[in-house]
Automatic annotation (TrEMBL):
InterPro entries: HAD-like_sf, HAD-SF_hydro_IA, HAD-SF_hydro_IA_YjjG/PynA, HAD_2, HAD_sf, PGP-like_dom2, Pyrimidine_5'-ntase_YjjG. It holds the Pfam family HAD_2. This is YjjG family noncanonical pyrimidine nucleotidase. The lineage of its organism: Bacteria, Pseudomonadati, Bacteroidota, Flavobacteriia, Flavobacteriales. SUPFAM superfamilies: HAD-like. It comes from the Bacteria.
Amino acid sequence: MKIEGITDVFFDLDHTLWDFDKNSALAFNKILELNHIDIDVNDFLYHYVPINLKYWKLYREEKIEKKALRFGRLNDAFSAIGYQVEEVVINKLSDDYITHLTRFNYLFENTFEILDYLDLNYNLHIITNGFDEVQHKKLAQSNINKYFKTVTNSEMVGVKKPNPKIFNFALQSANSVNSQSVMIGDSYEADIIGAKNIGMEVVFFDIHNTVIDDDIKRIDNLIQLKKYL
């Protein structure tokens, strides 16, 4: 069933449009090779991925700063595989990762198709918790920045999703209101609950078949947004 009365569509970026896991894996392959770190990349990523999610949750909850996130996720992942790395090397790897991450720009299936479709009838926007210096490069280098009228990131606002301030800031920047706006994202906590709490419509991009409230609209492929918009 179509959602009526929507004028503005807000997307999360990482894990929703921009395929973070795939691009991140390619970036790690590159920087580990450049820095002569001789480990099994798949084994490293097996530990890194959940560790990274844990650190992002702490970052989202304002319990750690960006510097602690960038160092801690790497340090803990190397510790998990029993590979000792000096602090100076971890800091270099952290910098190299940010540098190389945006050189890989795979998007989720049907990203361009759905953005072309939505762009005909809606104003499109981004709300992201990602780092300012990285998110704009992702949008530009994956050739999707042209679709979005505004881009709101947590560093601009000083708070992160699900804090209502970032959603209200984004609505104000878009010259829209909650009752005419929908949020689409992969994080149930940050995107869906955060937007729902301020009265926005929501669509959960649920590629992992999460057990959630059955009243939440959900998709597992972006093209399915045509059901709702």
